[in-house]
Amino acid sequence: MTTRLGLGLPQMRQYDIGKDVPDVARAAERMGYESLWVFERALFPEPATQGLYGVEGLPWPDTYRSVAEPLVTLALAAAVTERARLGTSVLVAPLHVPFQLAKSLASLDAASGGRVVAGFGTGWSHDEYAAASVRPFAERGAALDELIGVCRAVWGPDPVVYDGEVTKIASAVVGPKPARPIPILLAAGGSGRARRRLVDHADGWLPTGMGAETVARQWRELRELAAERGRTEPIRTVLRVNTRYSAKNYEGSDRRPFQGGVDQIVEDLAAHAEIGLDEILVDVQSTVRDAEELKDVAALVHERARAAGV
Q1: Residue 1 pLDDT
Q2: Which residues have CB under 8 Å from 186's CB, separation 6+?
Q3: Single pTM value for the model
Q4: Where would I find the Luciferase-like domain in this sequence (predicted)?
Q5: d(Cα 18, Cα 79) in Å, to the nearest integer?
Q6: Which DSSP string do the residues of 19-42 spell out, in sequence order?
Q7: How many CB atoms lie within 10 A of CB 192?
C-alpha cells in the first residue's frame, strides 16, 4: 500500500495569495495529491528577540516575513477543490480564541463536505505569544487542552456546555456542525506530557521529517506509550517534510534530509515511507521562485515518488 501524499499550499511572501492558492490547489488535486496543508506564522520579529524554534542564534528565514493566515488560505483552496482533505500543520493553539476557532473549523468542514483535518501545536515564539495569545506562554499546554475540549464540545450535539478557564458556555445551540467528526492531530514534541496528551485526547500525530531513524524511534515510543495507557484506537500519522529544493542534486556528505534535487527528495521520502506512517505532507514552497515552479516541482515529486513505490 502506498503512502498518501499531501502538498503544502503557497502562503509565503513570493506568492499572490488570491491567485496562486486556488491555482496550486486545483493543480495539486489533478496531480493526485490527496490533501492540502497550511501552517501558521503570525509575525516576523525585527530585531528577533529569540532564535528560530527557540534556538539561540538561529535566524528566522526571510520567507517568514509574510505568511498568509492559514484558515483564509484553506478556504480559498476549499472553494476550488472537491476531494482533497484540508489540513493544518499546525495551528498554534494559544494564538486563537478557542470558541471562535472551533466554530471556524466547523464552518469550513461543513462548507467543504467534511474534508478538514485539524492539526494543533503550542508554538515556541515568545513574540507571537506577546502579540496574540489568549494565555501566557507558561500556560501553553493548558491552553491547548482547553482548545481541544472546546472543539469537541462545539462540534458535538446541542446544547453545548463547557466550563473552562477562558471559555464559558452555559448552554447553547452552536452551528453549523462539521459534516463529519473532524480529526484532531497534535505536533507533540519530546515531552512526556505532550505525548500523553496526544495518546489520551487526540486522533493522531504530526511529526516532522528530521531523518528516518529519528522519526521511526519517536513513532515506536509513541506506540509503546499508547499501549501502556490502554489506547486501542489507531493513531493517525501525517509526516511534515519541509524541503530545501535545488535545481541540481546537492553535493556533499553533510546533506540534510529533503535537501537537494527532486531525486534526492524522493529518496528521502522513500526512506521515511518505510516507517509505515499513513501520510506524508510535502512542502516545497519556501525554496522555489513562484507558483509555476512550485507546481512543476510538486508534479515531479509526485510522479517519481509513485514510481518509487512511495
Answers
A1: 58
A2: 119, 120, 121, 144, 194, 197, 198, 202, 204, 205, 206
A3: 0.96
A4: 19-242
A5: 12
A6: HHHHHHHHHHHHHT--EEEE----
A7: 9
